[in-house]
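User: I'm putting together a teaching handout on how multi-component assemblies are represented. Below are the sequence lines for each component of a complex, exactly as they appear in our records. Could you produce the 3D structure of the whole assembly as structure tokens, so the students can see both representations side by side? Please keep the chain order the same as the input.
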Amino acid sequence: MEIKNRKILDTDILIIGGGTAGCYAALTIAEQSDAKVIIAEKANIKRSGCLAAGVNAINAYIVEGRKPEDYVDYAKKDADGIVREDLLLTMSEGLNRVTEKMEKLGLVILKDENGKYVARGNRNIKINGENIKPLLASAVEVLPNVTILNRVAITDYLVKENRIYGAVGFSIENETAVEIRAKKVLCATGGASGLYRPNNPGFSRHKMWYPPFNTGAGYAMGIESGAEMTTFEMRFIALRCKDTIAPTGTIAQGVGAKQVNALGEVYETKYGLTTSQRVYGTVKENLLGHGPCYLRTEGISAEQDDSLKKAYLNMAPSQTLKWIEQGKNPSEQNVEIEGTEPYVVGGHTASGYWVDTRRESTIHGLYAAGDVAGGCPQKYVTGAMVEGEIAAKAMVEDLAKEKAASYEMTEEEKAFCDNRFEEKMKEYDKILTNQSGLYDTEQLEEAMQKVMDTYAGGISNHYQFNENQLNLAEEKIEKLKELSKGLGASNMHELMFVYELKNRLTVCETLIYHLRARKETRWHSFAENLDYPDKSDEWLKYVNTRKENGKIHVLFRELVKRGETYEHSY
Amino acid sequence: MSIAINQSKCVGCGRCSQVCPGTLIGMGSDGKACMLYPKDCWGCCSCIKECKADAIALYLGADMGGMGSKMSVASREQYLDWKIEKRDGTVETIVIDRKQSNQY
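Assistant: Of course. Below is the structure of the complete assembly, with chains in the same order as your input.
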């Protein structure tokens, strides 16, 4: 097979990834301007991204009596100080605005008799979020200035002298390669799963917490184009229901279930209640021989059983299936819990693009929003939408300025884009015509996950690592990168798998640099460095990286604290 | 964890293939849907919600403790009717009112 067709498209704004942040950005752009938008989405925006199955609650909301600053404090505490307060505050200020918008689009939100949203704790409100993504997607699909390219996988940015001119990729449906020239580009591709060996490594390998289809493409394209990245070392590990990898927060908050060990002892208070401490406590109890660990649900009411089963159907149906299949409700059997494999995801921890408050990356004209953007943890669904909104407004503003200055892409810039497109098409053809390799994508993916699991703090090593192990991980990932150059594909779908693996290898490499650079253990489990088991105030700073001429450079930046704002100085 | 497609019920509309967030479902030469990559399913049930012919069901892999039950879902006005058929043929249903928010 070879590339048979080529398509060159021009647009004002290209959005890569039609998930939560990308779709919300498109809505905002259409409200604010008449700019032409293309959304390039490798699946179909109707259910793509993190919201495919739905979401059980809005977990980032400023409830009555609280203010955005309180949310910043919460996220800062959970990340033990390594956050960008400017980003967190601008995100927190928009949470209620986007929630109201989603309600207007049809999202069901629980209200009291006075018409006010019913809070679940300090930051959450109750919804029926099963159809949140179709609601958002439908609103985008009717926009006249937005063109949606479903089933188009983007592989590379078009970046010259630190300015972006668009991106290139291909259709996974037919042999068409696509060049999209754009004045502004928003990266909204999500975070990275599948870097480490997962909880269910065999048949159910994709029964994971984070979407297995979020392969770190946005991180990888940014890294290879020289964008600065931050805080990859703050990995995210979720505490989940065993086997189904379904959420535990719904049970813990919904019916007040405590974490208990096999002896029936409540252990969560021994280790602390931050997100990483809850995972760490479970790991420690297992190592002490007190496993397995559970959420204590025995004795809840029949009504609570029913509510739990319904809540899971609206976001993680396999858990309800498991309860029914086993013939035991949560009231009759505690729910066993475990930590997942580590992910890199900026919506929960602070990993991602180093951006300014307008969400522009260190590459001119390239913006980032949602899980791919760094410095702003605990953003969840609504925070991702706010970031989409902020980036959208910034892009519209910058387009207006350039229009006023009559800026147009020069012939030389267009020629650069077209030449790069030619190069990439040759690369696609090389992979599509190569059938002779010993190794296939699946085999290399398995090898990568084994390396990361063994040497970079995966499940089987209780999330722990030391520098010697990380050095080995780096060496082995480099070898796999080399092997990946010889991969072949027999159709366009397999071609996408090849690029997904390449993306993951690139993310792994940068992650290893970050894990090695932070010489302390600030977050148990998330970054458990056995060479430096304690935390130190010396490390109250960001670890950032930037790839230049094929080499990753580590740089440290001072914390951006309350009242301060970081802006790029180029 | 994956989906099972009942070939005798599939009407070949292609909606499941279009919506899958992993683009894992193809259309076979017989015009019917087929799961191309069973091990790559996330279990989100998007395809099952899209299917009007009740032809697709979710099941848990044996490595997740699955015991052969199949789960499907049908839309009816504002309701989602979830159906779990166990290996012994017994059926349990749960009705979700989409206008009601979650209790938790």
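A couple of points students might notice: The first helix of chain B runs from residue 15 to 19. Strands of chain B lie at 2-5, 25-27, 33-35, 56-59, 70-76, 79-85, 91-97.
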